[in-house]
Amino acid sequence: MAEHYDLIVIGSGPGGASLAQRLAPTGKRILILERGDYLPREEANWSAQAVFVDGKYQADETWTNAQGDSFSPALHYWVGGNSKVFGAALFRLRTRDFDEIRHAGGVSPAWPLKYDVLAPYYDEAEALFHVHGARGEDPTEPPGTKPYPFAPVKHEPKVAELSDKLTGIGLKPFHLPLGILLDQKEDGFPTPTSVCMRCSAFDGFPCLLNGKADAQVICIDPMLATYENVTMLTGAYVSRLGTDAAGRRIDAVHVTRDGHQEVYTAGTVVVACGALSSALLLLRSANPRHPNGLANGSDQVGRNYMRHEMSIVMAVMRHVNETVFQKTLALSDFYFGSDDWDYPLGLIQMCAKSRADQIKGESLPSWLEWLPEMPFEEMARHSMDFWLQAEDLPHPDNRVYYHDGKVHLDVVETNPEALKHLKRKLQDVLSEIGWPAALLERSLYLGKDIPLSGTAHQAGTCRFGTDPATSVLNLDCRAHEIDNLYLADASFFPSIGAVNPTLTIIANALRVADIIKDRL
Q1: Among positive and negative, which fits the CA dihedral 454, 456, 457, 460?
Q2: Phi and psi for 142 in degrees, rounded to 5?
Q3: C or N: which end of the chain has fewer Cβ atoms within 10 Å?
Q4: What would the pLDDT profile of 192-238 be if each residue is shown by its tens digit?
């Protein structure tokens, strides 16, 4: 006899973990199923060679792309999901991101809900994930009713100098909103009892000190320590979801754990595996009532995959940059356009300092003609690092699916011109402030030989909407075709904007939790 719960949550990343912790106080029996284990705390957490070059913490899987080539997706199957290695930049979507926007590559569709619906949940998400920021600095930020819960992470001298120079030419740089367990002294350095110590191994690394506000640290660990009604099973791969004879309710969650097959049941099931894995779960759960995959009468499951047009550039300059914690500044002046281009460009933010091991691991031949005499350590000392992202537009043929028993991920760039112009603007701006730089593209960020555009910032594979013919979920993020199935990751996004998606995932998961609470 299958063990029964009131609620089963599949996936412990930001969406699933936030939803579960919101519902834990109800006293209902909650089961969290996580296919991974706890990410090991070890010295390798802080090794650029282990994390970026060797891809030590990445999923050991092989997928196929649109060209028929094999690649390893930059996915992380751990308690806390991809948030274990995210950069913890926690932005709200801009108010205009919820409306239809014309881009160089096409149209970004409007959301069926507007910013005002998510606004109170954004407030709660920022509080829950310890977001450090300064309201009012970012010229494109949406209205916030409350200040950030924590003061912004202070710039180190070189970044502060960059900020002043950018301000000096009329731009509006701002402190990056970061989810971080940092207690700062007046000078910005950590207090003696701060969990985070402002080290260089924050962005893209697992945090050895648990000083990053990830889903495990913020939601899973405190919840399991407090609520006996919540159970989490690790190493629990959900192979498929079964339905009743009518196909209207999930009546079985099939799990493979320790080589054994297990079945669990629940009144309500929430899928929060990440946009790619959630879609794959629905597709492999096909049955006679749902022959094309669960909840896929619209043929939209797995389609409209988005992941931002992204680029990491290392700006190599004349002067030395001794910054340790570099990820504190962002620039949104060109988010919706610029004086020399009519379409939105996107967001510029700083990211972790390049390390010699990472530079060494890159495909260097094309770089060496730039700087043939400079050793890797010197390149790192003379660099500042920027993460550029432009909006990716949904397209039905950008999709994840199974074919011949293999996972296929077809991706064609939809808005590449925006990223080119954004990179050009960065180059122009650095020259204008008197810091001319050679901008070197870095592909090695989320693992070995993986273009960053692979699977980071995944969204859109089960979009929500009011029409079951063109969407998978209704506005409550419940499947149109299945009464007790909800999704709580970025699958529901109809568009992705050009800011990091995690805060929107968390805010929406809290909203969906409130909807489920009434049902429970």
Answers
A1: positive
A2: -75, 165
A3: N
A4: 999 999 999 998 899 999 999 999 999 999 999 999 999 999 999 99
Angle at the Cα of 44 from the Cα atoms of 40 and 47, rounded to 5 degrees = 145
How would you label 103-135 residue by residue, b for 16+ Cβ within 10 Å and e otherwise? bbbeebbebbeebeebbebbbbbbebbbbbbbb
Residues 6+ apart with CB under 8 A from 263: 2, 252, 253, 254, 255
Measured CA to CA, the distance from residue 318 to residue 320 in angstroms comes to 7
Tokens standing for residue 311: 């680029």
pLDDT digits (tens, 9 = 90+) for 8-24: 999 999 999 999 999 99
Of 486, 444, 443, nearest in space to 464 by CA? 486
CA dihedral over 182, 13, 493, 275, signed as positive or negative: positive
Q: Residues 74, 91: contact at Cβ < 8 Å?
A: no
d(CA 223, CA 25): 9
258 phi-psi bin (left φ>0, alpha ψ -120 to 50, beta other): left
Distance separating alpha carbons of residues 11 and 505, to the nearest angstrom: 13
- Tally of CB atoms within 10 A around 84: 24
The pLDDT tens digits for 35-89 are 999 999 999 999 988 988 888 999 999 999 888 888 888 899 999 999 999 999 9
**Residue 47: count of CB within 10 angstroms of its CB:** 17
**Rounded to an integer, what distance in angstroms lies between the CA atom of residue 13 and that of residue 36?**
11
3-state secondary structure of 519: helix
Provide the pLDDT for residue 362.
Answer: 59
Q: Which amino acid type is present at position 392?
A: D
Distance spanning both ends of the chain, measured CA to CA = 23
Neighbours of 223 (CB within 10 A): 21
The b-or-e profile of 477-516 (16+ CB within 10 A means b, else e) is bbbbbbebbbbbbbbbbbbbbbbbbbbbbbbbbbbbbeeb
CB 443 within 8 A of CB 363: yes
Is the CB of residue 360 less than 8 Å from the CB of residue 421?
no
Whole-Å CA distances, 337 to 105, 155, 299: 14, 27, 34
The residue type at 24: A
Instruction: Give 256's contacts (C-beta < 8 A, 6+ positions apart).
Output: 236, 237, 239, 262
CA atoms of 145 and 143, how far apart (whole Å): 7
Three-class SS state of 408:
strand
Report the alpha-carbon distance of residue 495 to residue 391 in Å, rounded.
8
Q: Which two tokens stand for residue 489?
A: 């990751």
Structure tokens at 493: 């996004």
Report the predicted TM-score, pTM, of the whole model to 2 decimal places: 0.96
